[in-house]
Amino acid sequence: MSRPAILVFATIVCPCGLLAAPIAGDALTFDGLRNGEQVLAYYDGGFGSLGSGPGPMSGVSFTTGLAADSTTISFGPSAIVTASSVTMNLDTTWSGVLSFYFVGNGSVQFYSGTSATGSLVASYQLVYPPFFPFGAVPGSFRSAVFAPAPGSQLLLDSVTFGAEVIPEPSTAILCVCSIALILAFRRFVPENAGASPRNVESVTAYTAGRASLSGGPW
């Protein structure tokens, strides 16, 4: 098959290979990369800096400055920002929810164009602790810039499009236990608060009755 024919075939049969987009539920977990490997175009059907790949065609790429890391944030490996900032570029505009786990302090800014161009759509501070995932609908964007705060590292995991990541297991258990304790306390307090006046009235009546019979308190 001639080269022009191959190009026509690829354009008609495999249009996703020319332009990809995140699908709701897509998550960048950084599992397929080697420790310390720059992510680069791995999630755009390309390769990491150490040759891992080709990765999934999610339509997402990163500038130099985000490397796979063995640190477990939630359920597996994570990625660490190794530069003063790193930009995540999308092949197409995304307008839905974006969520991810993070450890460390920093910020994330969303832009309408690729490579932090166009207008600033939204900006958020990333504050740790407490440990709780980021989740927002920033608006229509084509790029996001992650930047650690001065003197802080910033690690990311499970960058998810179109869904909210769940809290990390130990945090979720702690929240459930706290809610259960609050509900139990709210049930316990009214019952005892309501019983106390009745008990006081009963004791008062009993004491008065004894006093009338014996001429004294007892």
Q: What would your notes on this structure say?
A:
This protein is an alpha+beta fold and 218 residues long. It folds into two domains: 20-166, Jelly Rolls; 167-218. The chain has helices spanning 3-13, 169-214, and strands at 27-28, 60-62, 66-69, 78-81, 86-94, 98-103, 106-111, 120-126, 134-136, 141-148, 155-161. A hairpin with an 8-residue loop joins strand 3 (66-69) and strand 4 (78-81). It is globular. Mean pLDDT is 79; it is low at 2-17, 169-185 and 193-218.
Order of helices and strands: HEEEEEEEEEEEH
Spatial extent as radius of gyration: 29 Å
Low-confidence stretches: 2-17, 169-185, 193-218
**Would you report the number of β strands?**
11
Strand content: 25-35%
Largest sheet report? 6 strands, antiparallel
The geometry reads as globular
Instruction: Determine the CATH topology of the largest domain.
Output: Jelly Rolls
Q: Helicity level, as a percent range?
A: 25-40%
Just give the CATH class of the largest domain: Mainly Beta
Oligomer kind: single chain
CATH architecture of the largest domain, by name, is Sandwich
